[in-house]
């Protein structure tokens, strides 16, 4: 994918202040990838600001987002973190209510209830103790380890800031998630970043939908945190940790399909793609590994000739999260609900076909970026993932990320419609945070308050 982006980058189309925007927003996830998430707590405002000063030289700007020659380091803050840094009261009040409340307090809007409720989350998520989130990712182990060492050396120099969580993640050249499916194929492109239109990715979306301080799809600049130096060129980031029950998924496939080919077909129907990444729209009956690996073809398709979902079920995970040109029963502008996904897998893919819990921690760190990330993810979770009204499927939920709890239903249209019952919750929520992703000028401003 990085080669594709280098080929389509057009400097004459750059209108964003790329050198002030953190690279994670625009840079494609490396292939393969190695990385670490670090969560920090600030004991003293002075220590927090001193740490930020030391981290700024390590933070990667989006100036060369289309290249993957260096490790990417990202720094983000929770609302409690900004408070701990003693931001001016006027600035704190200028943040959206959803961000100020935090993810745990918004659990009902996110459909984080029952087994996904905050009371079951892993510490320190949802406790108010998480103040700073650092993400480091690279395409080689050597680059990742070098950047991580730099960050850890700076952390050692500061007393008054403590590490709450340090979690590594990685993926091979196939970039598969723990369920064995190629991941991270489809992301929107941002107008003004220098990108030319990519086959299958649609037109670039207005920058203001993802980066603060620029016009959005409505043609106006939305309100953003103040003063300007704090908010402009920033964004919001939603971080959610999931534990994936791969053995339950495999058990479900074996229960409802006899042969291995039939099981793979059912799995593709539930995801919307084959494990290789080939979309069902272009490979309706059989996986096509060459197509799945082709970044110029594996996202170049439409649903306009499949409005009934006979090829790609309306309720499959991929079509729910990006309906594209599907005619929806509850009308909404798809471009207003797009997010930039930078999710990464942890724990590794288990033995093929495993049907018993091997006790290993594995799953997904879901990372979503948008100028309205909190509102967008709350919409996706409540309306598209855990309801079916927008596709005339009643209370049917997403078969992969929905809160199904053994009662889930999955409808597969066809000449003979099939309904699969008793779907489990295959991805259990283990915690998360709402974060602010400031521009580099904002980082400097915060550190000098």
Automatic annotation (TrEMBL):
Pfam families: DyP_N, Dyp_perox_C. It comes from the Bacteria. Its cofactor is heme b. Residues 232-385 form the Dyp-type peroxidase C-terminal domain. InterPro entries: Dimeric_a/b-barrel (IPR011008), DyP_N (IPR049509), Dyp_perox_C (IPR048328), Dyp_peroxidase (IPR006314). GO terms for molecular function: peroxidase activity. The keyword Transferase does not apply. Residues 52-157 form the DyP dimeric alpha+beta barrel domain. Residues 134-168 form a coiled coil. Keywords: Coiled coil, Iron, Metal-binding, Oxidoreductase, Peroxidase. This is Dyp-type peroxidase. It comes from Olivibacter ginsenosidimutans. The lineage of its organism: Bacteria, Pseudomonadati, Bacteroidota, Sphingobacteriia, Sphingobacteriales.
